[in-house]
Write a structure and sequence with these properties.
inorganic pyrophosphatase (n-terminal core); alpha/beta; 20 helices; 564 residues; single chain; Diaminopimelate Epimerase, Chain A, domain 1; 5-stranded parallel beta sheet
């Protein structure tokens, strides 16, 4: 019954919908030719392949952009096409198309440029391509301008553009690249594409779909679920080396959305954040296992450097949040610092949102230029907020929940002033709050291995398909909390009702308890003066501990309240 509640909460109202949700299949993928511009794009790519014209793939430096380049590069080369690629350096070039790169490509004989995960606001660069005589195909998932204007291009593949009938509007950039690759390949050999190539390509698309935090519903869920299944049998040297660097063995234990989001994606992203993202494409393209291991080791090192840079800046930000009364009072936080690594400011903005429950923009100032990255909260369109200040930026873009920009540093006070006024108008009726969304009530004695196995069928979990959080009331604490590393707690919780049994009789029953862990809840336990015999209500997630000595089902506590 509780599992049915979870499905209903996900908008699943019939047995057929439930079957499709729990059994994603290639047949559930949409026809790529439903996407506006697809026919024109495919025909131009086929023309370039037939004429042996070099095609330039122009990507972005994050997981979404680099995996998109890998997908299209592989597809075009499978058809004997000639491919070049360019992924901009985050610090030297910044986000998006650059006219200088287009000019160099034209001089090198390129006549077709395909963007991946970028291009929807590249009006000047698209005009440059037109004047040069370059055909431009834009594949992107970012939103159009407020007036729905789009750049001049031979074709634009973006479900969010006006007039596009494609049913799944929330594809990530790599998924749109996947649809183009699928369309190109199935025109040549539909059976091989369906049975062999497309399942293999879903690996890269699944990593990007999960990493880019698009809603894991509809076609996105199909891509992510089938891709995770294919990742259980990694073939390429790059994937195997990356898994080894992340200490993951997908052949021994199936990958989860958590594994991709927090262990695989950060290592891929580290290249673009700290160094050269093009090496990610080399990692996934090389047939040399030694070179793949070398590149994966470099990603591991860069990821450690990213964590160090993030920790240093976060310490300064937390100090500001603790002492700057004017900043704390703002409804939309704009926090700037000199010399913060631009590769981590997006992560820092996410950390501020987690701590404050307010939309936040983190800005790095260096050499008179301010680079900002922002993250938002449910119900507040951050892109609309910065569009209200469009005249102060040299470049900006993004979507409802994430934005980026560059601007003269001396305009920062003006930006803060205008965003403060905007937030006061649009967030005035909203108080920041950390909310914990409870999905069902489940007494602890109803936790079983069978339920745990059914919950696994909800994978991949993530944005739009969250991990279930349950609530149990009047839970009896059988022992004092055990503190771990001064921040975390271990608890022993009764499975029996304290109303019908004494604590001593419950404690004497070896099968009457379940272990619980609470990360960063030591202070909360102290605040509530938890002790043996305390009655608490808990919000929790179900976990399976694989430790050889004390493995088994346990609960991870997400919140604690004293029982009424």
């Amino acid at each position: 019954m509780v599992f049915a509640e979870l499905l209903v909460a996900r908008g699943i109202a019939s047995a057929s919908q439930a079957f499709a949700f729990l059994n994603p299949d290639l047949a559930h993928l949409n026809d790529p030719f439903l996407m506006l511009g697809m026919t024109a794009a495919v025909e131009r790519v086929e023309q370039a392949i037939a004429a042996h014209q070099p095609i330039l793939l122009y990507g972005d430096y994050d997981v979404d952009g680099t995996t998109a380049v890998v997908l299209l590069k592989t597809a075009i080369e499978m058809l004997d096409g000639v491919v070049q690629f360019h992924v901009p350096h985050r610090l030297r070039e910044g986000y998006g198309l650059q006219s200088s790169v287009l000019e160099a490509a034209y001089a090198d004989g390129v006549r077709l440029v395909i963007t991946v995960d970028t291009g929807m606001r590249a009006f000047a660069e698209a005009e440059c391509a037109r004047k040069l005589g370059l055909d431009l195909i834009i594949t992107d998932h970012h939103l159009t301008q407020a007036d729905d204007a789009v750049p001049h291009a031979l074709a634009i593949l973006n479900p969010n553009q006006p007039g596009c009938p494609y049913p799944e509007k929330s594809l990530c950039g790599a998924a749109i690249a996947l649809k183009l690759a699928q369309a190109i390949l199935q025109r040549r050999d539909p059976t091989r594409t369906r049975d062999k190539t497309l399942p293999s390509f879903l690996k890269m698309a699944a990593i990007a779909t999960i990493a880019d935090a698009v809603p894991l519903q509809g076609e996105n869920r199909v891509i992510a679920a089938l891709g995770l299944r294919e990742l259980r049998k990694p073939v390429g040297n790059g994937l195997r080396a990356l898994f080894a660097a992340a200490a993951l063995d997908p052949t021994a234990k199936p990958l989860t959305g958590f594994d991709v989001a927090f262990r695989i994606a950060p290592r891929i992203n580290a290249a673009g954040r700290m160094d050269i993202a093009s090496e990610v494409i080399e990692l996934f393209s090389t047939r040399d296992s030694a070179r793949a291991a070398e590149l994966a080791a470099k990603l591991e090192r860069l990821n450690r450097e990213r964590r160090d840079a993030e920790a240093s800046a976060l310490s300064a930000i937390e100090s500001l949040l603790a002492t700057d009364a004017e900043l704390i009072a703002d409804r939309l936080l704009v926090i700037d610092g000199k010399g913060w690594h631009r590769g981590v400011i997006g992560i820092l903005a996410s950390r501020v949102v987690e701590r404050t429950a307010k939309p936040a923009i983190v800005v790095s100032v260096e050499d008179g230029v301010a680079h900002g990255s922002g993250r938002s909260v449910d119900g507040f369109q951050l892109l609309n907020a910065i569009e209200s200040c469009a005249d102060v930026f040299t470049r900006f873009g993004g979507h409802a929940f994430a934005i980026g920009f560059a601007m003269p540093a001396d305009s920062l006070p003006e930006l803060k002033h205008r965003l403060r006024l905007y937030a006061e108008e649009h967030l005035a009726a909203r108080e920041p709050e950390h909310t914990l969304r409870i999905h069902a009530e489940l007494p602890l004695d109803r936790i079983t291995p069978v339920l745990a196995s059914w919950l696994c069928k909800l994978e991949p979990l993530g944005h739009g398909n969250p991990e279930p959080i349950f609530v149990a009331r009047n839970v009896l604490l059988l022992a004092p909390p055990r503190i771990m590393k001064e921040r975390h707690i271990r608890l022993e919780l009764s499975l029996q009702s304290p109303i019908s049994s004494s604590i001593d009789s419950i404690s004497a029953n070896a099968h009457s308890s379940i272990r619980a862990v609470g990360w960063n809840l030591a202070a909360r336990a102290d605040e509530l003066a938890l002790k043996r015999g305390s009655l608490i209500d808990i919000a929790y997630r179900i976990r399976e501990n694989s430790h050889p000595d004390f493995g088994g089902l346990e609960v991870e506590i997400a919140g604690i309240l004293p029982s009424a």
